[in-house]
Protein backbone atom coordinates (compact mmCIF):
# COMPACT_ATOMS: atom_id res chain seq x y z
CA UNK A 1 0.00 0.00 0.00
CA UNK A 2 2.82 2.38 0.93
CA UNK A 3 4.52 1.57 -2.39
CA UNK A 4 1.35 2.47 -4.32
CA UNK A 5 0.97 5.75 -2.41
CA UNK A 6 4.58 6.62 -3.18
CA UNK A 7 3.91 6.14 -6.91
CA UNK A 8 0.73 8.25 -6.66
CA UNK A 9 2.71 11.01 -4.95
CA UNK A 10 5.32 10.99 -7.73
CA UNK A 11 2.58 11.30 -10.38
CA UNK A 12 1.05 14.24 -8.52
CA UNK A 13 4.43 16.00 -8.30
CA UNK A 14 5.08 15.57 -12.04
CA UNK A 15 1.56 16.76 -12.93
CA UNK A 16 1.79 19.75 -10.61
CA UNK A 17 5.15 20.71 -12.08
CA UNK A 18 3.81 20.57 -15.64
CA UNK A 19 0.60 22.46 -14.90
CA UNK A 20 2.15 25.26 -12.85
CA UNK A 21 5.20 25.80 -15.03
CA UNK A 22 7.70 25.14 -12.24
CA UNK A 23 9.69 22.63 -14.27
CA UNK A 24 12.26 25.25 -15.29
CA UNK A 25 11.50 24.91 -19.00
CA UNK A 26 12.83 27.83 -21.03
CA UNK A 27 12.40 29.00 -24.59
CA UNK A 28 15.00 27.76 -27.05
CA UNK A 29 16.32 29.31 -30.27
CA UNK A 30 17.68 26.96 -32.94
CA UNK A 31 19.51 28.16 -36.06
CA UNK A 32 19.88 26.01 -39.19
CA UNK A 33 20.63 26.47 -42.89
CA UNK A 34 18.21 25.27 -45.57
CA UNK A 35 18.94 21.78 -46.87
CA UNK A 36 20.22 20.49 -43.55
CA UNK A 37 18.61 18.23 -40.94
CA UNK A 38 17.69 19.52 -37.51
CA UNK A 39 16.61 18.11 -34.15
CA UNK A 40 14.41 20.35 -31.98
CA UNK A 41 14.76 19.55 -28.25
CA UNK A 42 11.74 18.75 -26.08
CA UNK A 43 12.82 20.25 -22.76
CA UNK A 44 9.78 19.03 -20.80
CA UNK A 45 9.79 15.39 -21.95
CA UNK A 46 8.62 12.68 -19.56
CA UNK A 47 9.88 9.09 -19.32
CA UNK A 48 8.33 8.16 -22.68
CA UNK A 49 6.86 10.03 -25.65
CA UNK A 50 3.27 8.75 -25.56
CA UNK A 51 2.27 11.94 -23.72
CA UNK A 52 4.11 14.22 -26.18
CA UNK A 53 2.43 16.50 -28.72
CA UNK A 54 4.40 18.77 -31.07
CA UNK A 55 2.68 21.90 -32.38
CA UNK A 56 3.78 24.29 -35.12
CA UNK A 57 2.75 27.92 -35.40
CA UNK A 58 3.67 30.58 -37.92
CA UNK A 59 0.25 32.00 -38.63
CA UNK A 60 -2.85 32.45 -36.51
CA UNK A 61 -3.61 28.82 -35.60
CA UNK A 62 -1.28 26.10 -34.33
CA UNK A 63 -0.99 22.84 -36.31
CA UNK A 64 -0.44 19.45 -34.68
CA UNK A 65 2.59 17.69 -36.14
CA UNK A 66 2.75 14.88 -33.61
CA UNK A 67 0.00 13.81 -31.18
CA UNK A 68 0.53 11.24 -28.45
CA UNK A 69 3.92 10.40 -29.92
CA UNK A 70 2.40 9.64 -33.36
CA UNK A 71 3.16 11.63 -36.54
CA UNK A 72 0.07 13.17 -38.13
CA UNK A 73 0.07 11.67 -41.63
CA UNK A 74 -2.31 14.26 -43.08
CA UNK A 75 0.15 17.13 -42.85
CA UNK A 76 2.11 17.99 -45.99
CA UNK A 77 5.62 17.41 -44.65
CA UNK A 78 5.00 14.31 -42.53
CA UNK A 79 7.59 12.26 -44.46
CA UNK A 80 10.34 14.65 -43.33
CA UNK A 81 9.41 14.34 -39.64
CA UNK A 82 10.37 11.81 -37.00
CA UNK A 83 10.35 11.62 -33.22
CA UNK A 84 13.60 11.00 -31.34
CA UNK A 85 13.94 8.63 -28.39
CA UNK A 86 14.14 11.72 -26.15
CA UNK A 87 10.93 13.10 -27.76
CA UNK A 88 12.87 15.63 -29.84
CA UNK A 89 11.35 16.59 -33.20
CA UNK A 90 13.58 15.67 -36.14
CA UNK A 91 13.07 17.52 -39.44
CA UNK A 92 14.97 16.44 -42.55
CA UNK A 93 15.95 18.62 -45.51
CA UNK A 94 15.00 21.94 -43.94
CA UNK A 95 13.45 24.57 -46.22
CA UNK A 96 12.86 28.26 -45.62
CA UNK A 97 9.17 27.41 -45.15
CA UNK A 98 9.99 25.44 -41.98
CA UNK A 99 10.86 28.49 -39.88
CA UNK A 100 8.50 29.33 -37.04
CA UNK A 101 7.52 28.47 -33.49
CA UNK A 102 7.42 24.83 -32.36
CA UNK A 103 5.97 23.73 -29.02
CA UNK A 104 6.52 20.45 -27.21
CA UNK A 105 3.45 19.85 -25.03
CA UNK A 106 2.88 17.15 -22.44
CA UNK A 107 -0.43 15.61 -21.39
CA UNK A 108 -0.64 13.78 -18.04
CA UNK A 109 -3.86 11.92 -17.21
CA UNK A 110 -5.60 13.97 -19.89
CA UNK A 111 -4.44 17.27 -18.39
CA UNK A 112 -2.44 19.72 -20.52
CA UNK A 113 0.92 20.73 -19.11
CA UNK A 114 3.25 23.60 -19.94
CA UNK A 115 4.73 24.08 -23.41
CA UNK A 116 8.46 24.02 -24.13
CA UNK A 117 8.82 26.41 -27.06
CA UNK A 118 11.48 26.23 -29.76
CA UNK A 119 11.98 29.08 -32.25
CA UNK A 120 13.47 27.75 -35.47
CA UNK A 121 15.45 30.30 -37.54
CA UNK A 122 16.35 29.23 -41.10
CA UNK A 123 19.25 30.74 -43.06
CA UNK A 124 18.61 30.62 -46.81
CA UNK A 125 20.97 31.58 -49.65
CA UNK A 126 20.36 32.39 -53.31
CA UNK A 127 22.31 33.75 -56.28
CA UNK A 128 21.38 35.74 -59.37
CA UNK A 129 23.61 33.45 -61.48
CA UNK A 130 24.53 29.77 -61.39
CA UNK A 131 27.03 29.64 -64.27
CA UNK A 132 29.59 32.40 -63.95
CA UNK A 133 32.69 33.83 -65.66
CA UNK A 134 35.20 36.62 -65.21
CA UNK A 135 33.68 40.04 -65.87
CA UNK A 136 30.18 38.91 -64.89
CA UNK A 137 28.32 40.72 -62.12
CA UNK A 138 26.75 38.43 -59.53
CA UNK A 139 24.42 39.24 -56.65
CA UNK A 140 24.49 36.87 -53.69
CA UNK A 141 21.64 36.96 -51.17
CA UNK A 142 21.51 35.63 -47.65
CA UNK A 143 18.27 35.81 -45.64
CA UNK A 144 17.33 34.71 -42.14
CA UNK A 145 13.72 33.57 -41.81
CA UNK A 146 12.57 34.05 -38.21
CA UNK A 147 9.41 34.01 -36.13
CA UNK A 148 7.81 36.22 -34.98
CA UNK A 149 8.15 38.39 -38.10
CA UNK A 150 9.56 41.47 -36.43
CA UNK A 151 12.09 43.76 -38.07
CA UNK A 152 15.73 42.77 -38.19
CA UNK A 153 16.53 45.85 -36.08
CA UNK A 154 14.29 44.43 -33.34
CA UNK A 155 16.15 41.09 -33.46
CA UNK A 156 19.45 42.95 -33.18
CA UNK A 157 18.24 44.91 -30.16
CA UNK A 158 16.53 42.04 -28.33
CA UNK A 159 18.64 38.98 -29.17
CA UNK A 160 21.72 40.50 -30.85
CA UNK A 161 21.07 38.43 -34.00
CA UNK A 162 23.00 39.79 -37.00
CA UNK A 163 24.07 38.84 -40.54
CA UNK A 164 27.57 39.40 -41.92
CA UNK A 165 29.48 38.76 -45.13
CA UNK A 166 32.89 37.29 -44.39
CA UNK A 167 35.88 36.99 -46.74
CA UNK A 168 38.13 33.94 -47.12
CA UNK A 169 40.39 35.17 -44.32
CA UNK A 170 37.44 35.28 -41.92
CA UNK A 171 37.22 39.09 -41.81
CA UNK A 172 33.80 40.74 -41.84
CA UNK A 173 33.20 42.74 -45.02
CA UNK A 174 31.79 46.24 -44.71
CA UNK A 175 30.27 48.80 -47.05
CA UNK A 176 33.69 50.45 -47.24
CA UNK A 177 35.17 47.45 -49.14
CA UNK A 178 35.65 48.89 -52.63
CA UNK A 179 35.21 45.63 -54.62
CA UNK A 180 31.91 44.73 -53.07
CA UNK A 181 28.55 46.43 -52.98
CA UNK A 182 26.96 45.28 -49.74
CA UNK A 183 23.40 46.13 -48.82
CA UNK A 184 21.04 45.07 -46.05
CA UNK A 185 17.44 45.62 -44.99
CA UNK A 186 16.25 46.70 -41.58
CA UNK A 187 12.73 45.37 -42.22
CA UNK A 188 13.82 41.83 -43.12
CA UNK A 189 16.97 40.00 -42.04
CA UNK A 190 18.54 39.92 -45.49
CA UNK A 191 21.99 40.90 -46.69
CA UNK A 192 23.17 40.96 -50.31
CA UNK A 193 26.58 41.20 -51.96
CA UNK A 194 27.07 42.35 -55.56
CA UNK A 195 30.48 41.72 -57.11
CA UNK A 196 32.09 41.76 -60.57
CA UNK A 197 34.12 38.57 -60.82
CA UNK A 198 37.83 38.50 -61.67
CA UNK A 199 39.99 35.62 -62.92
CA UNK A 200 41.65 35.33 -59.53
CA UNK A 201 38.27 34.67 -57.89
CA UNK A 202 38.47 31.01 -58.95
CA UNK A 203 37.91 28.76 -55.87
CA UNK A 204 37.51 31.83 -53.68
CA UNK A 205 35.00 31.53 -50.85
CA UNK A 206 32.41 34.09 -49.82
CA UNK A 207 30.63 33.27 -46.60
CA UNK A 208 27.49 34.58 -44.94
CA UNK A 209 27.29 34.16 -41.16
CA UNK A 210 24.39 34.62 -38.78
CA UNK A 211 25.56 35.41 -35.26
CA UNK A 212 23.85 35.70 -31.92
CA UNK A 213 25.71 37.58 -29.21
CA UNK A 214 28.83 37.41 -31.40
CA UNK A 215 28.70 33.60 -31.72
CA UNK A 216 28.26 32.07 -35.20
CA UNK A 217 25.02 30.05 -35.27
CA UNK A 218 24.71 29.18 -38.98
CA UNK A 219 26.79 29.76 -42.08
CA UNK A 220 26.54 29.44 -45.86
CA UNK A 221 29.54 29.50 -48.19
CA UNK A 222 29.65 30.36 -51.90
CA UNK A 223 32.59 28.96 -53.90
CA UNK A 224 33.51 29.34 -57.59
CA UNK A 225 33.92 25.82 -59.05
CA UNK A 226 35.23 24.89 -62.51
CA UNK A 227 34.26 21.75 -64.42
CA UNK A 228 35.68 21.60 -67.94
CA UNK A 229 34.72 24.80 -69.70
CA UNK A 230 31.98 25.66 -67.22
CA UNK A 231 32.40 27.61 -64.00
CA UNK A 232 29.56 27.43 -61.51
CA UNK A 233 28.82 28.91 -58.12
CA UNK A 234 28.37 26.19 -55.52
CA UNK A 235 26.74 26.63 -52.12
CA UNK A 236 27.70 24.69 -48.99
CA UNK A 237 26.41 24.87 -45.44
CA UNK A 238 28.26 24.53 -42.19
CA UNK A 239 26.90 22.86 -39.09
CA UNK A 240 27.43 24.22 -35.60
CA UNK A 241 26.88 22.64 -32.22
CA UNK A 242 23.73 23.99 -30.62
CA UNK A 243 24.07 26.19 -27.57
CA UNK A 244 20.58 27.50 -27.68
CA UNK A 245 19.06 28.04 -24.26
CA UNK A 246 17.90 31.65 -23.91
From TrEMBL:
GO CC entries: external side of plasma membrane; membrane raft
Residues spanning the membrane: none
Leader peptide range in chain numbering: 1-24
Pfam family, any one: V-set
Alphabetical keyword list: Signal
GO molecular function: MHC class II protein binding; protein tyrosine kinase binding
SUPFAM superfamilies: Immunoglobulin
Keyword Cytoplasm included in the entry's annotation: no
Domain Ig-like: 32-105, 116-221
A Gene Ontology BP annotation from the UniProt entry: positive regulation of ERK1 and ERK2 cascade
Protein name: Ig-like domain-containing protein
Species of the source: Cyprinus carpio (Common carp)
Amino acid sequence: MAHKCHLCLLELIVLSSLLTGTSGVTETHVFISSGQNVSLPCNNALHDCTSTTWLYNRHSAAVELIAGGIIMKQIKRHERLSLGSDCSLNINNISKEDYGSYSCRQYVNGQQGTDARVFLHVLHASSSQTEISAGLSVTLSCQLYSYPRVSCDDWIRSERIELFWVNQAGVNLTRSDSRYQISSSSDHCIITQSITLLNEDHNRERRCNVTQRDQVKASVTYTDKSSGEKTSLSVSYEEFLLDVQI
